[in-house]
């Protein structure tokens, strides 16, 4: 393994892999891979970097999981993709698409998790070849309260993210679009909402036990008790064992706001994280506010934010960045990478001080994840 | 029992590019199961886990459309699978 980076890129029309040199200066594309398939998430296995998984669907065919064990040279389809149990009356749920793919805990080689639309959680113990429904969530007595069929995003209700405590394989969090954050301490057998002080301004009770729309959550790598959340209603931080989230987005400039899809914690500094604000006013254009794209960085746990826009268009830049499409590497200084709804990939080699475009003209980007080569 | 099956372009990645194959089965679901044995993964992309034909997929026994995987097939029938290519 070298200092070079590979970016796994999932788009609305297929997947690509971009590989850098050691300096992260030049990039070479491999792809398209599975041209025409909708790739919602494309990730490498940190326990075995040659293993790659992607969640694939098309507009009309059913969803599946595609796997490579040779770094993306060859691919096989999951023998049994995520699917809800068959019901006797045939009216049960069916997976429309897998949305989030998460490698299991470091101690559990071969274990993977997938979050789906409609909301469901699935586990594989064989490297992603066969998938089982996680009954503790999918058959939970409150499943219809947490995931009412009428709730959700324009692309359907989702499990929007999965985070696993690196100290304890049994401790996991889910981000969901209609129950907020859910927590388990027994690896999915039981769940409880974890949403205190998180707003849901689209419900009669704006601070309910559940019902929030958690767009994205991420644990600070050096302090997994610190959870960053980009919510439909702002940016939040929670320090466990605390239960009450703090709306750290309140410190964002008022003309930019604190709405967005994603948040990226610094790989080494628990107080640093980046967000990518989008326009969440009126009908929610979901574009860069004012047509001026920028990342925002906090270095004090969300007490203050600084704009980082050097290199991005200074006007008429209307793209945004989706949940899985903003990430960092593990280098020092940390590299940052984002894929836009306009099919561009941008990177920063200096922790957001400057940005440069490294790819353009791709389809709408859904997912960018960085892994060592 | 031999059923002639028409494979739509979206699924020819499973059949090595072949658009017409022969399969066996007493029902539509049985034919799809037979196809899935030979072309693993194909069935789930046409029919969901509740045995519902996916929204934009259409199947015909001869000229008669069916969305019922229990529909019977007879020796010599033709099963036509089509996938909508609508959208952008």
3D structure, described in words:
Chain A is 2% helix and 39% strand. Chain A is built from two helices and 27 strands. Chain A has a four-stranded antiparallel sheet with strand order 3-2-1-27, with no helix packed on it. A four-stranded antiparallel sheet of chain A has the order 4-5-6-7, with no helix packed on it. Chain A is globular. The model of chain A has no long low-confidence stretch (mean pLDDT 96). By secondary structure, chain B is of the alpha+beta class. Chain B has one domain: Roll (Ubiquitin-like (UB roll)), CATH 3.10.20.30. Helices cover 12% and strands 25% of the residues of chain B. Chain B has a five-stranded mixed sheet with strand order 2-1-5-3-4, covered by helices on one side. The longest helix of chain B has 11 residues. The model of chain B has no long low-confidence stretch (mean pLDDT 94). Chains A and B meet through loops of A and loops of B.
